[in-house]
Design goal:
Low-confidence stretches: none
Number of strands: 8
Helix content: 40-55%
Strand order of the largest sheet: 3-4-2-5-1-6-7-8
Bound molecules: adenosine-5'-diphosphate, magnesium ion
CATH superfamily: P-loop containing nucleotide triphosphate hydrolases
Mean pLDDT: 90
Strand content: 15-25%
Largest sheet: 8 strands, mixed
Radius of gyration: 19 Å
Length: about 250
């Protein structure tokens, strides 16, 4: 059985960085291969994982529609086999993790058939992995649109201020309204300077959020981002990788 972790939160809160560091931490714990999913249309998790993207699921969908629409299917190949082959081709296999990039979301037109096929196949594929980490874009809409899969742990990343906590609570409520199947929701407050101020502890409590951990401002992250170095290569002894390690220990045996 795979355990699915979805990382959500407002833009710029640190979702992609935290996704990358969780993937890193899971690999360190030997929970491999990790299935990394970049569900942000502004594809960028790959950079933090240090890999190049040639093909996205959005691209596969377009290609399928073109090929099937134009009757250009390879002779003797079913649509299903053709799609499976295309998805395998889009899957980036690395040491310790495989990455699938969703890319551009479907347009408003009816791509239902292609989407349902894709979704179903990705779910089957995901079953091969002990841990799945999904880096989401801001907003929750696509979470329900793109996957019907159950989320075991929804990590909501927040800025270290009261408005950030309120936004995190709204994201949790939205996930509930959208009937996304979530096992547990945990709040992660990023860029915390020292101790978490009491006022923020009170806000967390007020909204009934469960704080799963805090992550300090980390110069190593800043340096890596300036040098465009993949954060998956960050050292064990930096404040943020240690904080992520503590979070992982809370849900990984
Ligand atoms: N704990 C942290 N310390 C220092 N810089 C951080 C930290 N978390 C994130 N950042 C920086 O903040 C920016 C936004 O982070 P990112 O992970 O891309 O956010 P999101 O995916 O939510 O938009 C990046 O430049 C990243 O390097
Ligand atoms: Mg991001």
């Amino acid at each position: 059985m795979s355990f699915t972790i979805a990382v959500a939160g407002k833009g710029g809160t640190g979702k992609t960085t935290i996704s990358s560091l969780i993937i890193r931490g899971l690999i360190k714990k030997g929970k491999t291969p990790v299935f990394a999913v970049d569900a942000d249309a502004n594809v960028n998790l790959n950079e933090q994982l240090g890999v190049k993207v040639e093909k996205t699921i959005g691209g596969v969908r377009e290609e399928m529609l073109d090929t099937i629409g134009a009757g250009k299917m390879p002779a003797g190949m079913s649509k299903e086999t053709y799609m499976e082959y295309q998805i395998q081709d889009a899957l980036i296999e690395e040491n310790g993790f495989d990455l699938l990039v969703m890319g551009r979301p479907e347009g408003p037109g009816c791509y239902c058939y292609a989407n349902n096929l894709l979704r179903r196949y990705i779910e089957v594929l995901a079953k091969n992995y002990p841990y799945i980490v999904i880096d989401n874009e801001a907003g929750m809409e696509h979470l329900s649109r793109r996957t019907t899969q159950k989320i075991d742990l929804l990590l909501i990343v927040s800025e270290p201020n009261p408005v950030g906590i309120l936004t995190a609570a709204r994201i949790r409520d939205l996930a509930k309204e959208m009937k996304i199947s979530v096992g547990k929701t945990g709040l992660v407050i990023n860029r915390v300077n020292g101790e978490l101020p009491d006022i923020l502890k009170q806000e967390v409590e007020k909204y009934g959020l469960e704080l799963i951990g805090t992550i300090p401002i980390d110069d190593t992250i800043t340096n890596f981002s300036f040098e465009r170095k993949p954060t998956i290569l960050m050292p064990d002894d930096s404040p943020s990788t240690r904080a992520i390690g503590e979070i992982i220990d809370k849900f990984v045996a």
